[in-house]
């Protein structure tokens, strides 16, 4: 029986909680939201058209709210498994600070608001992409993939990779090869990033019954996959320079950052499975966060320099 079902049995599902503003902010997954906003903003800056600053601000706000809606819907549905994991047990729904019904309503209202605002203020291509992203994350990933297949974060990574495409579309009204390259970088980055986490949080995922790759296929297979994806990430990172919408200086920086991903994944490949500290996996997880922010920061600087001059 899930946590939500137990609350219905207890008669607590219909009550109003005493949640604080901080609890509702937590539902938005602000750390994830910050990455979404940043990559979407980079997509907007790199787009060939120059947006109206006010409309650009509204578009970024709508994308941020849409990301928050996805987080709230994810926490609503995942309350049962979140309660079993040390990493997520303190979230607002499993602790009872926010009721499941409140989290669901909050997520749905934010989702509708964000899509409508983006469509009305920017264009409906971007709004449709945002609506698809919310649906993909909340329904395809959260309700289906996460609990059924070790490929959950591989396929589900598409949701997290779409923000720069949405940002690009908000400015141009189109999806182009350049925006899809930005998508590809994040899409290929997602597996080694989350599998590194899964390697040192295996017990959490086992308790929750989530079929993460290390739990289902074993550490050795997972580590080989992580190295392969890290190589692909490194290659995708230099594609903006190869296809001509970023400079050679960016390409050199991306190559160096990609080499770091490969090196950390190589260390994970040779990590002793008996070593409970999992230091190489923790180091890869930390570096992967730095890598993605650094790659998009380099793209941002490169785009600003190209548009306004050195």
Automatic annotation (TrEMBL):
It catalyses: heme b + (2E,6E)-farnesyl diphosphate + H2O = Fe(II)-heme o + diphosphate. The keyword Transferase applies. It is a multi-pass membrane protein. One of its GO terms (molecular function) is protoheme IX farnesyltransferase activity. GO terms for cellular component: plasma membrane. The chain crosses the membrane at residues 32-49, 55-77, 98-118, 124-145, 152-171, 177-200, 226-243, 249-269, 281-301. InterPro entries: Protohaem_IX_farnesylTrfase (IPR006369), UbiA_prenyltransferase (IPR000537), UbiA_prenylTrfase_CS (IPR030470), UbiA_sf (IPR044878). Pathway: Porphyrin-containing compound metabolism; heme O biosynthesis; heme O from protoheme: step 1/1. One of its GO terms (biological process) is heme O biosynthetic process. It is an enzyme of class 2 (transferase). Gene3D superfamilies: UbiA prenyltransferase. Its main location: membrane. Keywords: Cell membrane, Heme biosynthesis, Membrane, Transferase, Transmembrane, Transmembrane helix. Its EC number is 2.5.1.141. It is found in: Cell membrane. Carbon 2 of the heme B porphyrin ring is defined according to the Fischer nomenclature. Converts heme B (protoheme IX) to heme O by substitution of the vinyl group on carbon 2 of heme B porphyrin ring with a hydroxyethyl farnesyl side group. Belongs to the UbiA prenyltransferase family. Protoheme IX farnesyltransferase subfamily. This is Protoheme IX farnesyltransferase. It comes from Chelativorans petroleitrophicus.
């Amino acid at each position: 029986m899930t946590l939500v079902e137990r609350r219905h049995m207890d008669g607590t599902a219909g009550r109003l909680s005493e949640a604080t503003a901080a609890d509702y902010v937590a539902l938005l997954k602000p750390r994830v939201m910050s990455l979404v906003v940043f990559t979407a903003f980079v997509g907007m800056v790199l787009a060939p058209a120059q947006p109206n600053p006010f409309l650009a601000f509204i578009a970024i706000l709508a994308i941020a709210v849409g990301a928050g809606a996805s987080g709230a819907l994810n926490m609503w549905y995942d309350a049962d498994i979140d309660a079993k994991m040390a990493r997520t047990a303190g979230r607002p729904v499993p602790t009872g600070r926010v009721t499941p019904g409140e989290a669901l309503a909050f997520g749905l209202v934010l989702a509708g608001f964000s899509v409508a605002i983006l469509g009305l203020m920017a264009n409906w291509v971007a709004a449709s992409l945002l609506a698809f992203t919310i649906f993909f994350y909340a329904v395809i990933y959260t309700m289906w993939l996460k609990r059924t297949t070790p490929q959950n974060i591989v396929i589900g990574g598409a949701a997290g990779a779409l923000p720069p495409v949405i940002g690009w579309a908000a400015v141009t009204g189109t999806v182009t090869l350049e925006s899809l390259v930005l998508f590809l970088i994040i899409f290929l980055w997602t597996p080694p990033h989350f599998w590194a986490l899964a390697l040192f949080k295996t017990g959490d995922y086992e308790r929750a019954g989530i079929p993460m790759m290390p739990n289902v296929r074993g550490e050795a297979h997972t580590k080989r996959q992580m190295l392969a994806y890290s190589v692909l990430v490194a290659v995708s990172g230099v594609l903006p320079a190869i296809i001509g919408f970023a400079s050679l200086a960016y390409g050199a920086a991306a190559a160096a950052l990609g080499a770091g991903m490969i090196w950390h994944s190589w260390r994970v490949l040779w990590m002793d499975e008996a070593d409970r500290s999992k230091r190489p996996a923790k180091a890869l997880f930390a570096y992967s966060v730095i890598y993605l922010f650094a790659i998009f920061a380099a793209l941002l600087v490169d785009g600003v320099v190209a548009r306004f001059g050195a």
